[in-house]
Amino acid sequence: MQDVLIIGGGVIGMMTAWQLAEAGQSVTLLERRQCGQEASWAGGGIVSPLYPWRYSEPVSSLARSAEREYPQLAARLLAETGIDPEYRKEGLLYLRVDDGDHAFEWARQVGKPLEAVGADFIYAKEPWLAEGFTSGLWMPTLGSIRNPRLCQALRARLMAMQEVTLEEGVEVERVVVEDGRVSGAVTSCGYRPAAQVVLCGGAWSGELLAQLGQSLPVRPVKGQMMVFRTSPMPAGRQLLERVVLADGRYLIPRGDGRVLVGSTLEEVGFDKTPTDEARESLRRSALAMVPALAECPIEQHWAGLRPAAPEGIPFIGELPEIQGLFVNAGHYRNGLVLAPAATRLMVDLLMGRPTEIDPAPFQPALRLAIDGEPVAVTA
């Protein structure tokens, strides 16, 4: 019997397995497809909530902790796997922000550098932005990571660890509970016993728990994105070199010159079909920020499902009335943002260790007693 069985091979599940294995636990990770191919692959990789001052303190505390970890985490994965997650710390330009006073108050409280900038600063940083931006906000410490490569590196790291059994293409049919305690899971490839089970199934987490009479208010919210392939610009520059955010849409540059644009927010259940309407909307948003993207081919257009929880706060901890069954799900738009800290909190709880972050706001046993039906996600 393995010490821990993890259901779901996204970035949350893989980081949980990595940390548990390093703590000496034997771990089996089950993924119905290939690890990192769902929401973790479909996101953009900004290592911050889009407008961090609009989030509650529980989410902000996880985000600040994770942001501190990402540079070292990316460097370590590169050294240990040879796969570069491409962590970039080039800052973020916020354009057309209508709650700047709130932003500066938040920055003062958390000690985050944030400054008001004018047109000269904006176009010195990004000369190919559309004309007419006269002011904005600049956060110089913000970074981004290339999430598909982060997932590839995490998967490679797990495959090299003796403590980890990685099973892909394995569907979990049900979690087994005996006398009020979890004992494993029935899968498409047979029974997998375990002393503890951690559910990291993203938007699908609630479906497995419903079989046990547990109501977890996590629902899918579809998001569509696109990527443009750009050419080098004069003086060795790229068309875009840092994250730019305007009117709720963002552009994210990659190290090879590609530029991502995102994203939509759609309440359509588990439908992941890209649509022509969203493609045109994303294209218009991208060109409104960088008109030269009109001359760049759209290389790919895709959709993913974010796991939305009430108030955007994930569920992290042991389920009520079932000993040994834990959940880490409901991170909404911030799965990659929060992953290092959210998984560390999860592992500390599993191992009975002191936690750096107060676990109470995330605990299912406290929240499910009062949440009832799902409510609207903020931010």
UniProtKB/TrEMBL annotation:
Enzyme class: oxidoreductase
Superkingdom field: Bacteria
Keywords on record: Oxidoreductase, Thiamine biosynthesis
Residues in FAD dependent oxidoreductase domain copies: 3-349
InterPro entries per UniProt: FAD-dep_OxRdtase, FAD/NAD-bd_sf, Gly_oxidase_ThiO
Pathways involved: Cofactor biosynthesis; thiamine diphosphate biosynthesis
GO molecular function: glycine oxidase activity
Signal sequence, renumbered to the chain: none
EC number: 1.4.3.19
Pfam families referenced in this protein's UniProt entry, alphabetically: DAO
Protein name, per record: Glycine oxidase ThiO
Organism this protein belongs to: Billgrantia aerodenitrificans
